[in-house]
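FAQ: What does a ligand-bound record look like?

Like this one, built around adenosine monophosphate:
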Amino acid sequence: MMTHAKTPAIVRTIAELRQRIKAYRRAASAEATVGFVPTMGYLHGGHASLLRRSVHENGLTVLSIFVNPLQFGPNEDLARYPRDEERDVTLAASNGVDIVFLPSVEEMYPVYPLLTTVSVSSVSEHLCGASRPGHFDGVATVVAKLFNIVQPDRAYFGLKDAQQVAVIAQMAADLSIPVEIVPCPIVREQDGLALSSRNVYLSAGEREQSLALSRSLAKAERWVAAGATAQELAKKLAEDIRQAPSADIDYVEIVTYPGMQPIIGSGALREYADSVLIALAVRFGRTRLIDNLIVKPKEAGDLLCSAK
Ligand code: AMP
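The answer part, i.e. the structure of the complex:
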C-alpha cells in the first residue's frame, strides 16, 4: 500500500496523547486498530520499515521518540546519543504516521528513577543483558509504561534487537498486556551493515571494518551445515570477526530463540530443530554494534545440502 505524506500531530504530554487516541477510537469503527512503534529517534530505514508496516496494518499509527535514560548504563552514550527532531518528524510524515509522541524525561519520569521496575528474568540474563546490566529492566519498564499510555492493538519491533523482542514478548505474555508484538526483519545497508542510529559514530575506517559482522553471519549457515557445534560456530565467528583489526568483541553467542538460553553440548548444531539466535556484539572504537541471525539449523542445513 502507498503511504502518503501527511502532517502528524506532535504530542508532548501523556494526557494529550491519551485524549487523541480515545477520540480516534470513539470516532472509528469497532475494527479500527492502533499500531505503535516505540523508538529513540534519529530515524533511519529500519525504523521506517516498522512505521510502514504499522500504517499498512492499522487505522492509527503512533510513533514515540524517547531517549530513555533508564536503559543506559553510567558509562554509556546517553549524553551523546544522536537527536534530530525536525528530521524525524519529516520522516514520520513521509511514512504516514498519525501521531508523534515526544515526551520529555520529566513527563515520563516525574520521579526518577521510578519506584516501579519491570524485570523479565531468564530472557534478559545473557547477551546484552549480561554486558549491559540493567539495560533490559530499563527497556521493559519504559515499554510497559508506553503500552499503558498508548494501549495499542499491535506494537512493532525490529529483530535487529532480537533479545529485546524476546524480552518484550515475554513481558506482554506474563503480564497479560493485550497487545500483539510484531517482530520485523532487519533492514541493512546495501553492503550488509545493519542500519542503526549509532552508525553515525563510526569513522570511515571503522565503517569499513564494521562489515565484519554481517560478513561473518553470512558464513554461519555454511558452518552449521558442515557440522559445527554451537561452541565451534562461536569460535569460527570470533576468528572471522577478528580479521578486522579494530574489532573488539563483546560477545559472540549462540542461544535458543526466543528462550535466550545458551546451547551447550557436543552435538552438531545442524541437528537442532528449533530456532537458534546467532548474536554478535562488537566494538569499533567507542561504538558498540550488534547484529544477529535467527536460523532453524535443521531446515537451513537441509536447504544448503539440497542446493549443492
Ligand atoms: P531504537 O530507536 O534503536 O530504540 O530502535 C527502535 C526500533 O527500531 C526497535 O524495535 C529496533 O529494533 C528497530 N530497529 C532499529 N534498527 C533496525 C534495523 N536495522 N532494522 C529493523 N528494525 C530496526
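Follow-up question: can I read anything off the structure? Yes, for example: The two ends are 38 Å apart (CA to CA).
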